[in-house]
């Protein structure tokens, strides 16, 4: 009898019971799978340098990439604006995937609509779908803005969003003055960070049209980039408030993706007011916290708005120092004692714990800006990055990361593997092992295969709860990073020293 | 809000929010079931209306995500841009036993990661080279499927020619699947297309490496069980205990060889009718293999299904069925004794895909719970006909429900539990309503079979009776 009613076993334990083990054994004779000897041999072979070379020689196959496609980033940008409904023009399955992906990560509702194009639209184009879709979305969901991007289907057939939106307005789908910014976001170009950039540029150019004033409004714009840590938006607000900066965040999706449960569901939560976003053209400058998810947007701001832009990544101590000093310089306000105290606490934590991290070898992967931020912090701790995989890399990032690595003696053993994937990373971890791996939830497969402890930092994180509520930037973020990394190392140390009378001599109480 | 008239009034109010044209279309998909009718009074399997927030996916999701993806020893290539493979990577918890990356590939993402040049020049050459790279790096793979994403069909690639060529070169089965996301109106066409490719590229005589197979009179196959959280295993154990020999699982924890043997079984047992009725019908017509639907949710239906399955066999199996029922009934009784008092008379609203909007109803009923509304993402009319066997008079029915409709229906009916998908989960939890995901079993499971029913009951209790629901209202808010 498999189930004991007082202790009902789910899949975690149920299938380890003898009757199920026997079932698995008996099933094998129908499967036609290779023998366990052959599987074992092959598994060993995949750990070799020979396999690594074969693996790195592939030119067409991508296995376990660490990147998504453009519209995912586009709709993340869109929901940072007040009352904004993302509208994805193309096949409808994409939107189901995006909503699922964000919902699994944030554990929050995520609303977005599709124009649900099918075969007839593939032949005749999706104009009818756009006209009908905008009217339905506007009437049913009462948004303040509808931000349109595309799936690859609409891109391949060449639908022209600008013209379609004008026609839809002429047809009365939405009022003529209702904002419908758009961005073409083909999934066969770039990745989700490109889509974020394209949508941000699209929304800003729509909202700020004709809003340029004679004088500046004295504010500073901040673009978080493809940011999935809501704690980072809080940290940004905290730092700018402390420095007395009059800040406009473009765009602020904090409330949308970390909303309170008060018993009432609200489809639109918080977000940067459209009026404020429209006035962003009159700010004194724009600071982006990520470079590679804001390239086109910054270019646009500099050229079209004639506004100064800069990139600061407030990761680790020095990165945050530079950021707060820049804010201090911009505002003329001194750096307050409160912030200096936060810095002191973070540095205190780092000096307390440095011995456990110093000289440890790390592998990491993620979006280019996330990786830059992590590298800043790791080098400050004396960690030696070894394998750096960035699937959605670009030459500018690689040069920037290389330059950063060269500033530190701890960076000299690192290799940046641009355009590579997590199956490449597997070979790297087998042939040149490291002490720990930093990445998203998909890193758990690398942990299983290579036994490298995984520290979950990045997107998506599906198998751990609430990490997205924390910050990774600012002095407070540095403490979070340190906490996650150091305590994972210590947990791992316990696991390695837990066998009584064998390894537990080092199973220490005090560390 | 309990009578048929109340609910019809509610439907009207919800429709009033739409533009006229959309209201007219949606009106056909919403109704209240009236006892004695042969279907649920709704239209289905029709295009979703643009802009209304359907929960539906696409044909690719139906093929790669549902039918083909769980075949563990084959490499399934997401052919096209990077997104589709990425979003569906490990998304469905189709459990399997195997060494991932060596002889099994279920929780991996293989993609051709199309770039602009591939759209312009076509991807056929790349695809052929890519399959050879798979063979080089994963020599123990059992075969390959090509899961087409939207651009493939639009740029005119000839994946069938590539599949034939590649198959010749690597000496293994290579299946081209035209499951571009713009085909059809939902996942459903993807199921059908995937079924058809199994018919044409796996079961067709003369396919690669035919399998030696010795039949017994008790051979069956489990069809349409995707082994979410191990569902197929907690089903298989019952069939084996009653004396049947399960030759194949389609497709959870299944293999190519298992599929190849299936046309030689005595009876196909179909759980998810929607996604695999096509191949079952084909095997009946072409190979004379009969099929029957069964339901392994909740002890009432399990016992009924076991007896019905046994009725196709001799006394040995009939006795086996009785033996299995007798063995597990005390366990089921104990589950009901423990949980029914905690769940009695609680109301539920369901919205999922496949078979579950009807199949799980008896499991809830075994626990004393009542279904007040149900609907499917991508059902056809035959599903709604089957649904009438499961539901009561005045149950609210919604087909391809939109986010707006579902929120309004649930606000009005205030069920004690919402049983739907992850996209819906946090909407209703923010409304202080207990929720269970009914696609993924909310990361729990299995829910099939007697062992699964115990977990199902435990999970419904923990969802409904969590003390956290009592914390939502701040005490100073009256």
Quaternary organization:
heterodimer
The helix/strand class of chain A is alpha/beta
Q: What share of the residues of chain B lie within helices?
A: 40-55%
C-alpha Rg of chain A (nearest Å): 25 Å
Roughly how many Å apart are the termini of chain B? 25 Å
- Based on secondary structure, the structural category of chain B is alpha/beta
- Mean pLDDT rating of chain B: 97
The stretches of 5 or more residues of chain B where confidence is low (pLDDT under 50) are none
Q: In percent, how much strand structure appears in the residues of chain A?
A: 5-15%
Number of helices of chain B: 20
Average predicted local confidence, pLDDT of chain A = 97
Global outline of chain A: globular
Task: Report the sheet with the most strands of chain B, covering strand number, pairing sense and barrel closure.
Answer: 6 strands, mixed
Report the count of strand segments of chain B.
14
Please give the radius of gyration of chain B in angstroms. Answer: 23 Å
Largest interface, counted by CB within 8 Å of the partner chain's CB: A-B, 105 and 128 residues
Helical coverage of chain A, percent range? 40-55%
Helical run tally of chain A: 22
Description:
The complex is a heterodimer of chains A (511) and B (478). By secondary structure, chain A is α/β, with parallel strands linked by helices. Chain A is 49% helix and 11% strand. Chain A is built from 22 helices and 13 strands. In chain A, the strands form 3 sheets. In chain A, strands 11-10-9-12-13 form a 5-stranded parallel sheet, with helices on both faces. Chain A has a 4-stranded parallel sheet with strand order 6-5-7-8, sandwiched between helices. In chain A, helix 4 packs antiparallel against helix 20, helix 11 packs parallel to helix 15 and helix 18 runs parallel beside helix 19. The two termini of chain A are 46 Å apart. The model of chain B has no long low-confidence stretch (mean pLDDT 97). In chain B, strands 1-12-11-10-13-14 form a 6-stranded mixed sheet, with helices on both faces. Chain B has a 4-stranded parallel sheet with strand order 3-2-4-5, sandwiched between helices. Chain B has a 4-stranded parallel sheet with strand order 7-6-8-9, sandwiched between helices. Chain B folds into 3 domains: 126 residues, Rossmann fold; 105 residues, Nitrogenase molybdenum iron protein domain (Rossmann fold, 3-Layer(aba) Sandwich); 149 residues, Nitrogenase molybdenum iron protein domain (Rossmann fold), CATH 3.40.50.1980. Chain B is α/β, with parallel strands linked by helices and 478 residues long. At the A-B interface, helix 2, helix 3, helix 4, strand 1 and helix 6 of A face helix 3, helix 4, strand 3, helix 5 and helix 6 of B.
